[in-house]
Structures are given as structure tokens and as C-alpha cells.
Design a protein that fits this description.
354 residues; 40% helix; 11% strand; 10 helices; two-stranded parallel sheet; alpha/beta; globular; single chain
Length: 354
Amino acid sequence: MDLNLVRFRGLAVCGLSVFLLLAAILSTGCDSPSTVASSEPRTFAGDYPIKAVATTGMVADLVRAVGGAHVEVEAGAEPQMVEVTQLMGSGIDPHLYRATRDDVNTIANADIVFYNGLMLEGRMTDTLVKIGRTKPVFAVTESLDENALLAPDGAEGHPDPHVWMDVETWSRCVDSVADALADFDPEHADAYRANAAAYEAKLAELHAYAKSSLATVPKESRVLVTSHDAFNYLGRAYDLEVLGIQGLSTESEAGLARINALVDLLEERNVAAVFVESSVPTKSIEALIDGARSRGRDVNVGGELYSDAMGQAGTYEGSYVGMIDHNVTTVTRALGGEAPAGGMQGKLSAGGEE
């Protein structure tokens, strides 16, 4: 047989596979998925580095931390054990995200895939579950006890997916990632578990900083008003009343009645600051501020918070620890509490404020 014909047929089959996967991802709706289908244990048998794909920055950061010191390529570094590719970058809203053709190629070529779960990646979730029939796919929140999850009114029975806002609860996902990598790559199981323990210690320090900082905010001022309901876990963990203009998903629209009700609250509670989000348009917050101004009350923007996405890659705020440090420091200072301008480690690039 002609060699060129063989090559053409091989490329055609590969192209068809990618096309079918792309069609599945782009046609996926927001139906509730079933648990990833279990199968016989699958272990890594290829050449290192392991190609891991993660959906959001928060999930990717977990995998990088547990994957080890050589997760990211550095000049002169030893060969990587795990190479992490993050699908959604800074400022990307996972509620509305649609996979690109490049994403499809990345997922198709991955050895193992991690995602948040709890319907955060609504338009991709069913497809991720289907991919789990052919390769290891893990929702990092899958092992969380139901008692640890919030189910706000109007959420149609779906738990709130923004678990990472409660550092202590999010730290429980670290072992899930460690277990997944250890099962997939038993040769390095001890390293993954050691990395997980070290990262959990770092998160315990972050949790303690958040508690102590936000506790300095005067009781009457502990009202956090944001664009959408991404901060309920933060409120539960650190004793804040949290009010979002939109619902859990940014697909919902803020109605005039909701805006007016929040303007009433701003007046009644003497709230001095509201907050915008890096991955959500500011129009709803602007409408709220305009509504307050029409009644003769000035309300300031206390800063920009990271909700569904972390900061720019390569920055301190582009890590999970930096993201939460920024949020906690910004909220504390804007609501009248005491926190160092540079945050927990003095690394905040904007002094804790935008």
C-alpha cells in the first residue's frame, strides 16, 4: 500500500476523533451529571512527564502543588513528573466557558484530567464524565462530605460549587488529588503524599490568617456585597454576611427588584463598600452604586476580588494562596478591619487593594 495513503488515513482517523470530541463538548448542556463511571484501576505506563489537564486555576494549583517540585518547566530543572495544563486562565468565567478546539486536543492527549465538579464547569461537565470512561477523570470535590457543602435557596438542589473560598474545606480536596495521582502513578505515591502534607500545612497558615484578619472587621460592618454568589463559603468560614447581586451562576440576570432590595440594605446597614469581581462584568455593581447615589448615598468600590478565576499567571495572585490572601486582605481593609497592606506574606502586588 502507498505510504502516503497510510499516513493520510491515519491523519483522517485522528482528525475524526478530535472532531467528534469537539462536537460532544460544544453540544454539552448543563444537565446534572452522574458520578464518573468507575473502571478497573488504570496506572501510568508512558514516558514522563504525566500530562495532567485541569479546568480552573484553583484546581490546577492543587495538582501542581501535589505533583511536586518539577511540575512547571524551569531552566535547568530535572525532568518533570507531572506537567499541568490549565484550560481556563485569569479572568475566565467557568460558568459560561465553552471549550475551544485547542482544549479538545489537550483533553484528548491528556493522561489524567481534574476538574472542580458541583456543576461549576456546567457546559463541560457531562463531557468530562464521558471522557472518564476512557481515561482517569476526577472531580476534586467528589470526596467532600455533603455536610461540608452549602445549598442556598434558589440553587435548584445543586450545592454551591465555590468551595475554594473556605480554605479549610478546600484543603480537604488536597488528599483527593494525592490519592488520584498515587493510584495512577504508584511509583511516586510517597512523593505525592508528602507534597500534599506540605501544601496542607501552608493552607492551614492561610486559613488562620483569614480568620484573624477578618475578625478585626467591626461586627456591624461584616457585610460583603459582590457581583454574584461566589463568596458564601467565605462568609460561613469567616463570619461575614454575604450578598450577591446575581445567583450562584453568572448566567442568571440581576433584576430591578434585587437591585432595589440591596440599595435598601446599603442604606439600612450603612454599608460603605461593595466589591467587583475579576471574572464578572461590573454592570450589576455599577447599577447598585447608581441606585444608592440616586438616594443621596455614596457607596465606594472596596476593590476587585478574585472569585471564579485567580490572578494573572506568574504573579502571586495567580496562585491559590495569593488569590485568597488578596481577597481576605482587600475585604478586611475595605470594611474597616486591620490587615497588612502586603497581605499574609507581604507579597501582594497592589497592597491588598485594586
